[in-house]
Design a protein that fits this description.
Elements: E1 2-3, E2 6-7, H1 8-43, H2 47-123, H3 129-142, H4 144-161, H5 166-169, H6 172-216, H7 230-260, H8 267-278, H9 280-302, H10 306-318
Antiparallel strand pairs: 1-2
Helix pairs in contact: 1-6, 1-9, 2-3, 2-4, 2-6, 2-7, 2-8, 2-9, 3-6, 4-6, 7-8, 9-10
């Protein structure tokens, strides 16, 4: 039996995945809302929080270079690998991508460490004196986020290509839990610098929750490092337009924060809280559908099944937004 041109088993699994992702996303957004309330309650909307949001914004921009772009482009590449080389080939190329991304992220972190004063000047021209120095320190503390995010992005691509969405959808829970624990029990002692350390640990916790699910999908880590891997080159090449789009979106946020850095203390914090609310609908409903449908499309394209692509597109369009 088919539903909307898709086998019942596939449509039921996809609909179930979308529903669970929406539930997880709502739960994660709720915890994220609690996190933002606690940050505002503990640190207010002033100089320290403005500095923190600028520093974390720069790490987010650097993370987009590796995590977001690679996650999007590596899914169809993995589908192609599986069609040609099977599961073991897929795991091999995943390990190669993890190692290459780890190496690239280390280079980015080292460069960003030395360029931190320049980056802060570019992103927050209104900062000076104590606030400027604090921003540089916070940025340097938060740079390991880039390393962990790159690995999270690669594992997310692998898991989604396996139609295993739940752990990736649930990574917001440990992420926000780390923040909330710090804000309730440790923020008074460690202050805004501790908050940035908590940010690093929160991203690391996302990786830890994905590992058991990856092992269930028969993934085992092995050291593979081949920069001449044609599939890795293809994924990196395909990531260029995605990277540009992601970077432009993040740069828009950075520009807004840069302009806000000239305003009264707390303006950047208020802008950040507003952006969190603005992205609620997109982050919960639209992302849930695209997360499930995109790997299915990639698999059908890899098998040159245009009819299957059209059927899945019809299912995606008919899914409740």
């Amino acid at each position: 039996m088919v539903v909307g041109g898709i086998p019942m088993s596939t449509s039921n699994k996809a609909a179930k995945s979308i529903f669970i992702i929406i539930i997880f996303s709502l739960g994660s957004k709720f915890l994220g809302f609690i996190r933002e309330i606690l940050i505002a309650a503990k640190f207010g909307a002033g100089m320290e929080t403005d500095t923190y949001f600028i520093a974390i914004g720069i790490t987010t921009l650097l993370t987009a270079i590796l995590s977001n772009a690679i996650t999007t482009t590596f899914i169809p590449v993995l589908s192609e690998v599986e069609a040609k080389e099977g599961r073991q080939g897929k795991i091999k190329h995943t390990n190669n991508m993890i190692n290459i991304i780890f190496f690239l992220s280390i280079i980015i972190v080292i460069i960003a460490w030395f360029l931190s004063p320049i980056l802060i000047k570019l992103m927050a021209k209104g900062f000076y004196g104590e606030q400027y120095n604090l921003a540089v320190k916070l940025l340097r503390i938060g740079l390991p986020i880039v390393v962990f995010s790159g690995m999270v992005g690669t594992l997310t691509a692998f898991l989604q290509s396996e139609q295993r969405h739940y752990s990736s959808a649930a990574i917001g829970f440990p992420f926000n839990t780390v923040y909330i624990f710090f804000l309730i029990f440790l923020s008074s002692k460690f202050g805004i610098r501790g908050l940035m350390v908590a940010s690093v640990i929160a991203v690391m916790s996302q990786l830890l929750i994905q590992i058991p699910d990856a092992r269930k999908a028969d993934y085992r880590y092995k050291f593979v490092f081949d920069i001449n891997d044609e599939y890795i080159k293809k994924a990196l090449y395909l990531s260029i337009p995605v990277l540009i789009g992601v970077a432009i979106n993040d740069l828009n946020v950075i520009v807004d924060r840069t302009l806000a850095s000239y305003l009264v203390a707390g303006s950047i914090s208020a802008l950040n809280y507003a952006n969190k609310l603005n992205g609620l609908v997109l982050g919960v409903f639209v992302t849930a559908i695209t997360t499930v449908v995109f790997p299915l499309l990639s698999k059908e394209f890899s098998n040159d099944n245009i009819r299957g692509v059209k059927k899945i597109m019809g299912f995606g369009e008919s899914s409740p937004k």
